Sequence to fold (249 residues):
Amino acid sequence: MRRPVLAGNWKMNKKIEEAVKLATELKAKLGEVKDRDIIICPPYTSLGKVRDVIKDSNIKMGAQDLFWEEKGAFTGEVSGPMLKDAGCDYVIIGHSERRQYFGETDESVNKKMKAAFNFGIIPIVCVGETLKQREENITFKVVEKQIHEGIKGLDENSVPKLIVAYEPVWAIGTGKTATPEQAEEVHKFIRQTLKRIYGDGDAHSIRILYGGSVTPANIAGLMNQEDIDGGLVGGASLDTESFIKLVNY
Ligand code: PGA
Fold:
């Protein structure tokens, strides 16, 4: 049995005070939940304060990106050890917004994923096709390449800890969710691809999250699918009630 994961990607939202308020409310209602992993990913500026709020609870924190070097002259970047220091156990890597607006490639995703593991942070690696690619019927080809190039070269200890997020780009922030069947089809393909690379046993434990307009109304149907192990949630994670409902799907 893979343990469910509900992760909130706050993106570029919430100033420190707002982030602390949301984290405080979530801790009050979700801090004791033990049968699933709950992760919130605030922007960098709020990490330290949110860590102080959620410590001693079952809510964990993730960052939205990292740079692969440990330290040095890389203006504007944040390293794995800095994220660890700020209280992060997880980091989102290769989100489609980073691929689209900030030149993220499968190669940089791969370096970042390995750096995250090196520094003791669990990466949540995002893959997914655009609407054009889906319409051209190349979804599997696109996702397979993102996996082969982005998720290659892991050692066997790291493989079972990895988290992958399938986020069809056309479903992100658009209100258009993939149907549970559409999502499951790609999740199954992702798992088979990972098994071909890493072998049956280890890849079986990898949790694969779905992301793209997940709401309290559609989460249960998605979670019912065999290869969907959780959700990476943007918009619906910014509101206390909605994220609580999502976690308690
Ligand atoms: P959304 O974003 O839930 O607002 O569609 C999901 C994501 O980008 O991770």
Summary: The chain has a mean pLDDT of 96. DSSP finds eleven helices and eight strands in the chain. The two ends are 18 Å apart (CA to CA).
